[in-house]
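Input sequence (252 aa), recorded before submission:
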Amino acid sequence: MNAWLERLVALESEVEYKTPPRCGEGEFRFQAGSLPVLVSAPHGAAHTRHGRLKEEDDFTAGLARLCGELSGAYVLYAWRKSATDPNYYPDVPYKQALAQIVRRYDIHFVVDLHGCAAYRDFGIALGTMQGQSLPREYRRLILRLLYRHGFRAGGGWLSRVDVDRTFTAGNGSRQETITRFVSQRLGVPAVQIELNSYLRVVRRRPQASERDPFEGDATMIERTINLLVGLVRAVARYTASDGFERGSPTKL
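Predicted structure, token format:
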């Protein structure tokens, strides 16, 4: 196992998927950065929707943290069981913290990381609310970067990219996804990225909600790390140019 994967396992080991926050702890944590990009992992631990516990998107918290370490992005991630679903309900603590971070650190772009099942017929799914969550130039930038790292719409299985089909980031639904919240209420471009288990889970942990043993594809996980780091850096460069223009946020 190379150093990146070892570090990913170490970072993920601090997440307790189904343990409520202890006294003095919160359900989520913040990791400071140096670039005006925030990587979010709201489903890093188990969460609650309509009174039912939903399983975690394992290794999304670890990936977000590792991406932050390698790229300089700010990171907000769930690390304890949540009594709400940050990617569904409005006005929850996670979103309140996210709004404060965006304002305090002048965040120009948000990448919201999620995980999908290994049976999916793609490696990565992008959700942009059919292009409503970010300007067209950002969409083109992200698709070019994906292609450069071997991910494209016509790729085979784990190299295939699904764009605004399976996961749209909540366009047309009552669900307030992080991407919808950031783009519509904060006026900041955002994208939802769903990663197949093979692209993020180094080795399933014993305390995971999914009990069957599972190991991802080490080569594809490394490629995904490179992609995320490259995405943060590329977006940061673009926002530093004249190309960035903040939207009109809704008052909270």
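Checked by second reader. The domain at 3-242 is CATH 3.40.630.40 (Aminopeptidase).
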